[in-house]
Amino acid sequence: MAIKIGVCPVIIEYSPQEILSRIHLYEQVGFDLIWEGDHTLPWHHTGGHSASALVMVEAYLQMTKRIPVHYMVSGIGIRHHPYDIALQIATMSIIHNGRVGLHIGTGEAMNEKTTVGKWPSAGERIRRTEEAIRLIRFFWESNDYARFNGRYFKTFSYIYDKPRTKIPLIGVAGGPKMAEIAGMLCDGLLSLGSTDYLKSVILPAFEKGAKSVGKEPSALQKMVFIDTSYHPDPEKALRKARLYGGVLIPESYSMIQDPRIIEQRSNLVKDSALMDVFAIGSTPEEIIRKYESYKKIGFDTLIWAEISPDPLVSLDACREIIPALKSI
């Protein structure tokens, strides 16, 4: 299985200027993909940042030459309408010769509820996401007006300038139901978590969804998002990763929206839990071993989510790490 290595520059961790100063280097060191996620608030208050993911993705495309750039939108139908997303991504794909991909997830309260004041149940958010995926596909592919009268979206519209090449549409799943929908309706899956959880829960649900509509699961992309903190000083690497401990607290996705509180709660997360899910290392070999564990369970695209103390130090290490992973 050919492995691709992606990178998420993480707009909630570093300033726009800092990220853009090094974005061209990701292409140079051998990454196969740049990924950015839609966030309004960061996972921690101290040293946190926020920027428009859509604006940053367009900047990434302009400042690189060949590498594909994928944009993840969450909370579809809460902060974003499917038509707007379909139109924006189609336009970017036309301008940048098909280098654009779209990922869709059900959202997080810290981004949705804090912005618009509502947070539907998990079931409703999944249904909204499923409906939005079908609608976006229709806008991209149909030569007719979308006379869509769904449960959540009622639309009569059309995209005149359609994408010239197929845009990868990836379903983002944290649980089995969304993983199954990704298998049914999308070109692939993006998930995160421990290898045990992904192997026993997420991947089987994804494969079930794919097979239910006659797809071959092995022909679909399987992508994993790995929060990665690398630094030659192991204490610095672990300390920086701890700021993202809130990612491992279920309440952070629904009940807690304040980054200041999430940051406080992250201090309660055990080091062993951080090491289980994140890639935290002070040598390239440690990072390689962690990434290899995801390849072994069936993932073909490994996304390095950059939360390291010094991204330039990480980039230097990637000159060794990326070739090693691709040779395994």
Summed over residues and divided by their number, the pLDDT gives a mean of: 95
Helix content: 40-55%
Number of domains: 1
Q: Look at the helices and sheets and give the structural class.
A: alpha/beta
Q: Please give the count of helices.
A: 12
Task: Just name the CATH architecture.
Answer: Alpha-Beta Barrel
**By CATH's scheme, which homologous superfamily applies?**
Luciferase-like domain
Give the CATH class. Answer: Alpha Beta
Largest sheet: 8 strands, parallel, barrel
- Low-pLDDT parts are none
Shape: globular
In which order are the strands of the major sheet placed?
1-2-3-4-7-8-9-11
Distance between the termini: 10 Å
SSE order: EHEHEHEHHEEEHEHEHHHEHEH
Quick take:
The protein has about 325 residues and is α/β, with parallel strands linked by helices. Helix content is about 45%, strand content about 15%.
Description:
The chain is an alpha/beta fold. It has helices at 16-29, 53-63, 82-95, 109-116, 122-141, 176-185, 195-212, 234-242, 259-266, 271-277, 284-296, 311-327, and strands spanning 4-8, 33-37, 69-74, 100-105, 146-149, 154-157, 169-172, 188-191, 221-230, 279-281, 301-306. An 8-stranded parallel beta barrel has the order 1-2-3-4-7-8-9-11, surrounded by 8 helices. It has a two-stranded antiparallel sheet with strand order 5-6. The mean pLDDT is 95.
